[in-house]
């Protein structure tokens, strides 16, 4: 099965279109004010309107209020919600939208329990644990911590770039990979050549 790719932290229409041209299956829009990749609702709507058919638009939230998520949903046609904080299952389900749940992985993280608790998530996005950051660390975690029999599709994140994504796919065999900093020229500004190189790395992976 082909490994899907989400390019996250898109802040400009031209970067979104370059991601699509490179072959990305999804783009991610960050609605978390402390992130340097955060976009306004107005900019997000502009980006989403430029995305062609069959490419998913994902909205990333970190412990947001219900009102904040609803405000975004009224203005931006999101296909999928990504919850990247400590959101409990009932919170994630209340919007009646497909969602994925991010998990910060470290020694002792019970991913089997996460898969059971978020049994209706469309996937678990596994990212690197950092005490002060909910994501975007640019650091790889120990892929050996991922159980082979996880009940939900795995979306692998954390420090991926063109020169390690093939190895990551060969070892983990995830449903999808997620990249942000690994394809940037500066925080929030994507690099078309790096996105293309990342996609080649995904295509060269042996699974």
Key traits:
8-stranded parallel barrel; 207 residues; EC 5.3.1.24; TIM Barrel; 21% strand; 7 helices; two-stranded antiparallel ribbon; alpha/beta; globular; PRAI_dom
CATH topology description of the domain at 4-97 and 157-203: TIM Barrel
Number of helices: 7
Radius of gyration: 16 Å
Considering DSSP H and I runs of 4 or more, what fraction of the residues is helical?
A: 25-40%
CATH top-level class of the domain at 4-97 and 157-203: Alpha Beta
Total strands: 10
Strand content: 15-25%
Strand order of the largest sheet: 1-2-3-4-5-6-7-8
The shape is globular
User: Terminal Cα separation, in Å?
Assistant: 8 Å
Give the overall average pLDDT: 95
Based on helices, strands and strand pairing, what is the structural class?
Answer: alpha/beta
CATH architecture of the domain at 4-97 and 157-203: Alpha-Beta Barrel
Which regions contain 5 or more consecutive residues with pLDDT less than 50?
Answer: none
Q: What's the main sheet like?
A: 8 strands, parallel, barrel
Superfamily (CATH H level) name of the domain at 4-97 and 157-203: Aldolase class I
Quick synopsis:
The chain is α/β, with parallel strands linked by helices and 207 residues long.
What would your notes on this structure say?
By secondary structure, the protein is an alpha/beta fold. The protein has a domain at 4-97 and 157-203: TIM Barrel (Alpha-Beta Barrel). It contains 7 helices and 10 strands. An 8-stranded parallel β-barrel has the order 1-2-3-4-5-6-7-8, surrounded by 4 helices. Strands 9-10 form a two-stranded antiparallel sheet. Helix 1 packs parallel to helix 7 (192-203). The longest helix has 12 residues, at 192-203. The radius of gyration is 16 Å and the shape is globular. The model has no long low-confidence stretch (mean pLDDT 95).
């Amino acid at each position: 099965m082909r490994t899907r790719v989400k390019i996250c932290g898109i802040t400009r229409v031209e970067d979104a279109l370059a991601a699509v041209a490179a072959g990305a299956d999804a783009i991610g829009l960050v609605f978390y004010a402390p992130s340097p990749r955060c976009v306004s609702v107005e900019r997000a709507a502009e980006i989403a309107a430029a995305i062609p058919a069959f490419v998913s638009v994902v909205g990333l939230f970190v412990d947001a209020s219900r009102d904040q998520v609803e405000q975004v949903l009224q203005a931006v046609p999101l296909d999928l919600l990504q919850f990247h904080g400590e959101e409990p299952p009932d919170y994630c389900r209340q919007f009646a939208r497909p969602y994925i749940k991010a998990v910060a992985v470290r020694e002792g993280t019970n991913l089997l329990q996460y898969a059971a608790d978020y049994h209706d998530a469309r996937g678990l996005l596994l990212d690197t644990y950092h005490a002060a950051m909910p994501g975007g660390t640019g650091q790889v975690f120990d892929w050996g911590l991922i159980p082979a029999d996880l009940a939900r599709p795995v979306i692998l994140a954390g420090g991926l770039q063109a020169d390690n994504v093939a190895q990551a796919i060969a070892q983990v065999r995830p449903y999808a990979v997620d990249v942000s900093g690994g394809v940037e020229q500066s925080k929030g500004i994507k690099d078309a050549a790096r996105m293309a190189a990342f996609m080649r790395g995904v295509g060269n992976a042996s699974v």
